[in-house]
Amino acid sequence: MLVDGADLVVRMSELEKFEAVHADVRVALSTVRAVRVVDDAWPELRGIRAPGTGIPGVIAVGTRRGSFGKDFTVVHGRGHAVVVELDGATYSRIVVTTPDADGVAAEIQRHLMPAPNLS
Question: Where are the domains of the chain?
Answer without folding.
Answer: 2-111
